[in-house]
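tool=predict chain=A
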Amino acid sequence: MLNNLDLTKVLFLDIETVSGHATYGDLDKTFQSLWKLKTRQVLRQYDEPITEEQAEAAYPEKAGIYAEFGKIICISVGVVTRTNGKLGVRLKSFASDDEVELLKDFSQMVSQYYNNPNQHYFCGHNLREFDIPYICRRLLINQLPLPRPLDISGKKPWETKHLLDTLELWKFGDYKNYTALKLLAACFGFPSPKDDIDGSEVGGVYWKENDLDRIARYCEKDTLAVVQLLLKYMLQPILTEEQIVFVEH
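tool=predict ok
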């Protein structure tokens, strides 16, 4: 499949998520109770009740992983271009404190340019298990329509071939382990996307430093790393700095 893949028809993406509120104390009583139940699963502590202190400590770092307790603050996308036979990539972020605005803008782009799952592809690392399900869940929670390519609930595997997951491609049928994008970058010899912050620090950078631009640039580097990784899978050279364009958002 990858041998015949037209990279200009692929939308590369990565998302950054944080807890829905800055602290556990900001939740209403219902969600505090529900988060305590979730914390039991997060900490794998099934024999003893979760304390308020444990729930409070787990919330800032772990809540953003779950679409029911978190929100999306950035979706970075990469589009491969071909000019006179030479590839390039343009990277852009949909980043906002207003999740509804962010999701509307992203959905509009998808519907306008990537609306045909028979012609277009979406590519990310752990895309099938995290990015796409999270986006779809947050769209529904915010009562926004699903773009056609993302309306995949109940679809058979052959009906979601437009979702290219670089993690899944690396597994070759081995589903025991998760392989981080940073590790694959090191294995294939291209720059790591984790040269500034990592996923566990995003919540702090957002809620404490209010530095959305820094998070967006980090997310764009992750997206770029996915582009480079797919090129390596296709036995093609990675893109050089001159071939990469970061579009201001």
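Helices lie at 29-42, 52-62, 99-113, 127-141, 166-171, 181-188, 202-207, 212-233. The first strand starts at residue 10 and ends at 19.
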